């Protein structure tokens, strides 16, 4: 039976725990008691995996005591107790123990679940340099001449060539390696990942020296990134011998290079960290990155030799909320520390794209329509920076505001103030006479005085503006700069062909609306332009997003009469859906689950520093579902033909591009049925 909607286990997540218990050197009974205590805590947290440190049942620092029969027998007794007590516990336990088979001692990870030992994994690489002397006591995995052993009365798989696969939970495939294994050029987990392991657990002891913690982070982050996996790391903590070494109890959880959780170091007490790992993200990434599969092919013999040990995972029941940071704005960083770097990169990608296009064509002028809205503002800022970089005067930017039947005085004024502030060549063309002529030519009722504001009425205005821009470009030997953004492309919110859909080059093509808002805020905050221009930019940010194509009443309105977001939904929600649908291919119910976690409570989680308090919204699940249905219909059913014929423009963010030459290739006549049905049946 599937877990309920509000459980992470319904959406491809598993909760993992890394436990650092208190230990006593050479006291297995004490160590087992504390291991069990933390295993119970992990079970109460509904964890699927609980990882413990290397040789934790005996302690790592036993040295020649590892050769004492009494200690090894006590370890076996302790493992027997762990196995028996695990019958009522949720997680798969990975505990470290010295185990002797056929006269050889191995440094092992014992994998236990629900009263059974699933397998035993010996350490592959034994450090015997500087402070380490493991070859003195232990045998490496490669020197074992058997693939099964008997532990606690059970005959179980043995070797570093095993992964543990949950038959009833797709994507939950676990592998264990031990400490030094990940410090080698080709860790055993690399082959396990190529064979399908998604969760790699490293039982480590790892004494601490100055600077070592940062290197651990780099190792775990890098291995999780290269192997497209979750990487769990434990280091021995309170109680290990300090005769010659010190221990910091460092615990880490990474997912594909992202740090999900990290423990305090040098803690006085035992401790545990918990994080929710997105298995579906990992599977999606592996299926997309063909080079991952190519690497598996290059090492086919080694990969095929990996043994798959099946087990039944008892999925925790009930509502289990997500314990993971999910940014409200996936295209925008919450952390102010990365803000400047991201904005610098985004602007320079756009500027360099436009610089190359101008250089390649030999064109030195730009024509742009300036509406006083967000998108044309961002494109105009990029154009100004481009001229500066090329050593050309900003007067080479020919900006035109083109009022139509619904242009408000506010946006028209903002357009003029912005053009003057940036020092470009500014002009105004009233498109109403040419629009009236076209409406008359085609027999539209508005030409006869009837207040008919249909799609034809709207698109005549959008088309006239674009037609003027292209002919102005011909006249002045210039390039038409597009302004439409990624969010509008996703929703099909553009007039096709001779309309805002078309240009010679579009610097905003892969920049979503929420990121454009953020970039403009950053320009203001960082003082990129004089204060007067910054004030204009702030007024543009504060103006309702609108196509300004349908009049709201008699005379010229001060503010837009139409609201785009009332028609197609809040851009902050639609951009959230866009990211997870196109970047990861998630099913709608999972996107809704994530959106509700991110947006359900404005007090939970972080916000981008520059977003005003009054713009910090929240949405209930019903609202999220309603607007996601709009997104799915527009994105999958009615808008692809526009994306199949978009102008050139640079890819800016990792969220992708919808260009048919870039990240997204799709048929123009597909159906939206499967996405809509999944949303309707999968979201309460």
Task: Provide a descriptive summary of the structure in words.
The chain has 684 residues and is α/β, with parallel strands linked by helices. The protein has 21 helices and 20 strands. Helix 9 packs across helix 14 (513-525), helix 17 crosses helix 18 (588-599) and helix 17 (571-584) crosses helix 19. It is elongated, with a radius of gyration of 31 Å. The model has no long low-confidence stretch (mean pLDDT 95).
Summary keywords:
alpha/beta; 21 helices; 6-stranded mixed sheet; 7-stranded mixed sheet; 684 residues; single chain
Summarize the structure.
The chain is α/β, with parallel strands linked by helices. It contains 21 helices and 20 strands. The strands form 4 sheets. The protein has a 7-stranded mixed beta sheet, with helices on one face. It has a 6-stranded mixed beta sheet with strand order 5-4-3-2-1-14. A 5-stranded parallel beta sheet has the order 18-17-16-19-20, with helices on both faces.
